[in-house]
Fold:
Amino acid sequence: MKNLVRSLNVVIGCLLVAISINFFLIPNKLVSFGFDGLATLIYYYNHVRPEINLLIMNVIVILFASLFVSKEKISSYLYPSLLIPIFMFATSFFEGMINLEIPETMLTVIVAGFLSGYGYSMIYKEGYQAGVTFLIEELIGKALHFPSKIYSWIIDVIILVFVLLVFNYQIMLYSLLVIIINKYIITKVRFGINDSKMFYVITSKDKEVKNYIMHDLKYELTVLDVKGGFTKKKNQILLSVISTNDYYKLKEGIKIIDPNAFIAITDTYDVVNRKSF
Structure:
């Protein structure tokens, strides 16, 4: 049953990506990120259907990458890389029957970015990889001995430059917004919305700060014994995870208690067993 649900989520995710491309991006001459965007851009230039372009590029990259990466890694790309072009081909028959045209281009950008971003995130959450761009990114990282997410962004920039040359700066900017929304939605759906903040506090008035956190704001905290790397001075870090709603209350409260306190704040996407320690 669990495997069935996983497979269904991947299928729905691939279908959402195909709908976004066929019904929102292509009618407005927009592109998405990665090879989806490149396949669409080639279609605008030579009128060869984007699903054919995408399928050919996916197969070539996967076959080439299979020489350098494990079969398990390749298998995570294989399923979505075939399904998305298949669904693009299937939904293309409904383009003339179903009119989803939106009068405002900006609204089209938002809808397209959300649909494809949510579709991709459904695929990623089930342990699959939707874009072979990231496979290329991994190969480049291995070759240069410097893994980085910047390689996929370089590919996106190259695509946007071609969009600018083929069309105009407005289409390029709208396509950039599609890519940004796409990746933002993927990140938020995969990792959740950061509804908590983690505070690291070093202060000379630790008793007052502890009292403020525990009794005034009603949050738990943990005390960590540390030693300065430069000064070698022993000290304590007060660690507390709080609701984002109380972010400014805690930050400003600590600054009032100790204006010289060291405060480091990070986003926290999930908290498990909050009161275990």
About this structure: The mean pLDDT is 84. The chain has ten helices and four strands. The two ends are 36 Å apart (CA to CA). The longest strand covers residues 234-243.
